[in-house]
Amino acid sequence: MPVQIDVAELAGLVIEGILYGVFLALFVATMQVLTRKRRHSRPNIPSIVSAVVMFILATAQISVDTTNIFLSFITLDRTHSVEFLLDGTKPILAARAGIYFTMMLVGDVILIYRTFVIWERNFWVILIPVCCTIGAGVAEYHTIWVFRHNSDPNIHEETKWGYAIFASSLAANFIATSLLAYRIWSHEARINSVLPKGLGMARLDNMTIVRIILESGMINVAYLIAYLVILRTGGQGLEILAYMTTPIIGITFATVILRMAMAAQREEITVSTTIHSPNSRLEFPMRSVGIAMDSDSMAMDKTLSL
Fold first, then answer.
1. Apex 103 CA angle, 100 and 105, nearest 5
2. Which controlled-vocabulary keywords does the entry list (predicted)?
3. Of 24, 226, 229, 278, which has the highest C-beta tally within 10 A?
């Protein structure tokens, strides 16, 4: 028996509430990391702005979703509730879709900007992801307009625009993540080829950054593929995923920041312990270690900058 729209909406709101709570905790921790004073670096304004924008969008999303549930269930019986939830011309449903699509675009733009920075602001590298994101944005807001002005949209047209949205976003995520990971990996390979073996202990392994970026990219790709699969098979599972998307994007963004900060701190503790160990036989002076770590800290700031 297929899931009904009202059941999917209620289940989606419950899941969204749980994920929003997780995102809220991660947001607070992320802001502490981003606003913490560090040597040789200024506050990461783009990352701070991105985190705040995501928090505002996630909060607006759960507020609008909760309002939608109240409007459809408190004063209406089940038959009218289903009709209300299926009516795409309602302003509140347009607001929900607008926030949801905006959050998707923000996530894509952040990833593309990271790639842009790591590739030394070479616009040609990000040209294809930018085009994909622009295409996704056009399809997203056109879809809102169609539903807002057409009480009975054609199901074929709805599916067509859905494919355009999620396929374009998937392409942008995949290409940008691949370019970002390749750039950091190649940089790490060049560093390892010229540094003495012992000096590698005094710097953050960039392969850790590559692993974090790839894992976060896989999360984005996974839910976009899930969207395409559900869109192809039909059903109301798409509603549940729609509730989950906004907090998941925020969680992914915050997790990248926090994991990189934790990795940097862990490396610093490891190096400090090794240097002060009586059994340490490192063949480079303490001053060199400090320089290496400061340089790597600045590299980390560049990697985390959005």
1. 115
2. Membrane, Transmembrane, Transmembrane helix
3. 24
Helices and strands, counts by H and E, the chain: 9, 0
Q: Return the CA Rg of the chain.
A: 23
**Tens-digit pLDDT profile for residues 128-148:** 999 999 998 888 888 888 777
Phi, psi at residue 89, to the nearest 5°?
-85, -10
Which residues lie closer than 8 Å to 251 by C-beta, 6 or more apart?
A: 19, 22, 23, 26
Burial class (CB in 10 A: 0-12, 13-18, 19+), 294: middle
**Nearest to 13, CA basis, from 244, 178, 211:** 244
The answer to whether 288 and 275 have CB atoms below 8 angstroms apart is no
Question: Is the backbone of residue 90 left (phi > 0), alpha (psi -120 to 50) or beta?
Answer: beta
Which one-letter amino acid corresponds to residue 48? I
Q: Which residue has the higher pLDDT, 56 or 203?
A: 56
Question: What letter would DSSP give residue 214?
Answer: H
pLDDT digits (tens, 9 = 90+) for 57-98: 999 999 999 998 888 888 777 787 777 777 777 888 888 888
Taken in order 219, 222, 228, 230, the sign of the CA dihedral is negative
141 and 284 Cβ atoms separated by less than 8 Å:
no
d(CA 32, CA 153): 46
Total-model pTM: 0.79
Question: Which conformational region is residue 85 in: left (phi greater than 0), alpha (psi within -120 to 50 degrees), or beta?
Answer: alpha
In the numeric block, which tokens belong to residue 18?
Answer: 């749980």
**Domain spanning 5-273+287-304, CATH architecture:** Up-down Bundle (1.20)
Q: Where are the domains of the chain?
A: 5-273+287-304
